[in-house]
Specification:
mainly alpha, 2 domains, 0% strand, 6 helices
Length: 105
């Protein structure tokens, strides 16, 4: 419907958005996707990389520590610091646990 209105209104994104009660950004995004042959599908907004994500080696240590000791909360972080000399935030453990389906029961 948006593309039909867009072409019917002389390829004017602003007028199309106004007529269909869309924001100009939304209408422009869908017209741009059609123009680039991406189809009318939702595209992920996720960034291709996450430079601040916990390194895989640290994640594997947290997972193995969690499985061996069954510590919860901040204890795995403190135990890894004591045992391996790794200093990282207890929030790191909190973020790693759901990624590896180690839900705290």
């Amino acid at each position: 419907m948006l593309l039909e209105a867009y072409h019917g209104l002389g390829a004017n994104v602003s007028e199309t958005a106004r007529q269909l009660s869309f924001s100009r950004n939304t209408a422009g995004r869908w017209v741009g996707r059609h123009r680039d042959d991406l189809g009318l599908q939702e595209l992920s907004c996720r960034t291709p990389s996450c430079p601040r994500q916990t390194p895989a080696g640290v994640e594997s240590l947290v997972v193995s520590e969690r499985n061996q000791t069954e510590f919860e909360g901040v204890r795995p972080a403190h135990h890894l610091q004591w045992q391996h000399g790794l200093a990282f935030s207890p929030h790191t453990v909190r973020n790693v646990v759901p990624r590896h389906d180690l839900s705290q029961a």
